[in-house]
Amino acid sequence: xxxxxxxxxxxxxxxxxxxxxxxxxxxxxxxxxxxxxxxxxxxxxxxxxxxxxxxxxxxxxxxxxxxxxxxxxxxxxxxxxxxxxxxxxxxxxxxxxxxxxxxxxxxxxxxxxxxxxxxxxxxxxxxxxxxxxxxxxxxx
Length: 140
What we know:
Strand content: under 5%
Radius of gyration: 17 Å
Structural class: mainly alpha
Largest sheet: none
Helix content: over 70%
């Protein structure tokens, strides 16, 4: 029987949980990013917020980079800690600038993504990742 109050960690279980979180969060965020990618390549006028003053096209491009490219890196577990940084920044902008005056129920999804990205920044990608294979190879 599993001891509910045990504080020791099993590294394999932890890596499996990190893998599930990485793949789930990345897949969900890619679905948000693909709609933005379509908007970017649709060709017409871009109607996207410019919260940091770099222009609508640049703001959309930065969002697409974070939500598609960085999420793909998370999905495969490559440069995981580095890939979380643009995603964290994107969620901070979404939660505190874009939806800053909105009620918590509007910000809730962005906050949840932000918390998962912070978790992945701290934990890294785990054993089941390209990062692990690279670090293992560099040890020998």
